[in-house]
């Protein structure tokens, strides 16, 4: 089957979680599409899942949630889909591609700045300053939709120098010093370590994103896919997500 170019590019980015020796021994493969902000957590969770299910290889693909849903709608052969908000997952649900949803955790926005916070950002309102260069997620991406909501709550208008398709792209630009600040998730700041500084702000408490997960209805490994969903939503995966800074389901 010839996939659309965008799907082919995504499939090329798939990475198996296990080592090469595990891949060779594995006779079942589970393909998981997950939001970019879940990358570190899901990589660790996939390793644990493989350890508890000998012979299974988990292949992971991370991207912006809207891109992932678009790939699934175009026929990309995924077994599990996890997005950074329920609104984006709803597209796949409306198309009948997923049925039963479960939630795996929650997240909030935080301001990320380059180390040392050279622009002296202290609040969300500071991002609306005329001389402040800010990077945001695009409005169609969950972190972009969340940014828009906190702008409305704070009655400010941020004019970003660029809009990115995933939260990890925002984080990378801030860490590289290409912007004074960016709005990312609390978990992204924690994962980034010393490469950025985090500036919490009060308005973020009013915009909490819930992360849904679901097995795809057309999966050839539906039982295994549901097992992975349960592992993340109610099993050992919860410990990994909490350690990464995700909030309650």
From TrEMBL:
Protein name per Swiss-Prot or TrEMBL: Molybdate ABC transporter substrate-binding protein
SUPFAM superfamilies linked to this entry: Periplasmic binding protein-like II
GO biological process, one term: molybdate ion transport
InterPro entries with a match to the protein in the record: ModA, ModA/WtpA
Organism for this UniProt entry: Aeromicrobium yanjiei
Top-rank taxon, per record: Bacteria
Family as reported in the entry's similarity comment: Belongs to the bacterial solute-binding protein ModA family.
Key words of the record: Metal-binding, Signal
Gene3D superfamilies: Periplasmic binding protein-like II
GO molecular function: metal ion binding; molybdate ion binding
Presence of keyword Signal: yes
Pfam hit, one: SBP_bac_11
Residues spanning the membrane: none
PROSITE patterns assigned: PROKAR_LIPOPROTEIN
């Amino acid at each position: 089957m010839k996939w659309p170019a965008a799907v082919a590019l995504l499939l090329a980015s798939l990475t198996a979680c296990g080592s090469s020796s595990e891949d060779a021994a594995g006779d079942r493969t589970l393909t998981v599409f997950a939001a970019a902000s879940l990358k570190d957590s899901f990589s660790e969770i996939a390793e644990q899942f493989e350890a508890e299910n000998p012979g299974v290889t988990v292949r992971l693909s991370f991207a912006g949630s809207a891109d992932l849903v678009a790939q699934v709608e175009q026929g990309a052969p995924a077994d599990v889909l996890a997005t950074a908000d329920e609104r984006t997952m709803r597209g796949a649900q409306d198309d009948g591609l997923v049925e039963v949803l479960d939630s795996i955790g929650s997240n909030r926005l935080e301001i990320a700045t380059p180390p040392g916070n050279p622009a002296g950002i202290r609040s969300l309102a500071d991002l609306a300053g005329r001389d402040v260069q800010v990077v945001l997620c695009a409005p169609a991406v969950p972190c972009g939709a969340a940014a828009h909501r906190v702008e409305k709550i704070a009655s400010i208008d941020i004019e970003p120098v660029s809009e990115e398709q995933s939260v990890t792209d925002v984080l990378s630009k801030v860490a590289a010093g290409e912007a004074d600040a960016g709005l990312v998730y609390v978990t992204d700041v924690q994962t980034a370590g010393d490469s950025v500084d985090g500036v919490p702000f009060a308005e973020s408490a009013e915009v909490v994103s819930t992360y849904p997960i679901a097995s795809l209805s057309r999966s050839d490994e539906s039982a295994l896919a549901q097992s992975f969903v349960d592992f993340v939503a109610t099993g050992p995966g919860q410990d990994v997500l909490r350690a990464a800074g995700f909030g309650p389901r």
